[in-house]
Design brief:
Oligomer: single chain
CATH class of the largest domain: Alpha Beta
Number of strands: 23
CATH topology of the largest domain: D-amino Acid Aminotransferase, Chain A, domain 1
CATH architecture of the largest domain: 2-Layer Sandwich
CATH superfamily of the largest domain: ATP-grasp fold, B domain
Largest sheet: 5 strands, antiparallel
Helix content: 25-40%
Number of domains: 4
Length: about 450
Amino acid sequence: MKVLVVGTGGREHALAWRLKQSPSVKEVLCPGGNPGIERVARCPRLSGNGHADILRLARDERPDLVVIGPEAPLAEGLGNTLRQAGYPVFGPDRDGAMIESSKAFAKDVMRAAGVPTAEAESFSDAAKAKGYARSLGLPVVVKADGLAAGKGVTVATEWEQVDAAIDENLAGRRFGASSERILVEEFMEGEEASVFGLCDGDTVYPLVPAQDFKRACDGGRGPNTGGMGAYAPVPAMTEELFTAAFSEVLRPTLAEMAARGITYRGVLYAGLMLTGDGPRVVEFNCRFGDPETQVILPLLEGDFGEILLACAEGRLRPMTMAASPAEAKSAPAGIATSPGHCVTVVLASGGYPGSYSTGFPISGLEEAEKTDNAIVFHAGTARGDAGDVVTAGGRVLSCTAWDRTLARAVEKAYDLADRVDFEGKMFRRDIAANALRKGN
């Protein structure tokens, strides 16, 4: 089949790369693309990047499946547009995408479904928000209600930080319309993990859990970013916690959305805090994570294209959740998980997530990609005037490697990160370090 992938970042490079390996997939299209995606997909140029342009391309190319990568087009209803035109789409409609585009909506779904999560309330009035925050006590979490590219969360440990975060969102409109409302939430203690469920509207199948690193600097310091690295699987996600994440989070959330008339077909991403009382939801996303996708997909086996098409067409075979990740090897269409480990290290432009410069030549890519069981996924890259690859964004590359042991995967990923270079390159040196210290 022919698959159209929407999006041009590191997640979409990983999706296109994995789809290209699928026996059922003859061709992958990724409009716009980037220099990395161009190696595995045809990247037609569009006159614009609106829904009409994507629909026009679909009518010209007649794909058998459309995979929508980023959250913004999903929240804007691109899935609705393409489904109405008769194309199978992996990715929820606008109503389903509200699980990410509105924190208040997500909390309402969780309350109705009985999903464990932090206590929180939404506000558009700063004084009321500050009053509620003080009823929770420090630390306090302040979130923009809408989409903010992974940067809309403030974990405040002092009241001055709480008040500043509330004012920056509501009065300062830090994230534009996404800051018209905020969520003020209790702080949860524990280790974070992400679980992704493939959904066809009725059935959900969980993939291997991952852990990403949001802060810009080593030791969890610095501002929040879109993600500076990730690894999978997560040792802290025990068999008991994995089963709880499926039965107490993914399945009831999908069922509650179905009860509301929402046929959710795509990825349901649950960002979890593994607390002493079990997994509690930090947030939901309506798409594959970035950079978690870069460590999940190299560990998947089988026909990835067929499983995504089965989700899009509502025909995942109903199944009973296995008791443990070890027993949950086979997905309905034959996907299996490698027993190894995968790590990705994000190379970012100097200054990210603040202001940064672009257009710097990138060296070492060809040499780095000679490494076995490794790949450098492109995110913020472009072709320079001389045809070379240059930086074109905040997060530039994801240096990804997989191996039998976590230690070896970490070593290989950092070897890639050291060999690839560009002016101002910055990256964290502690991806998966805690797991390694615990002997995993």
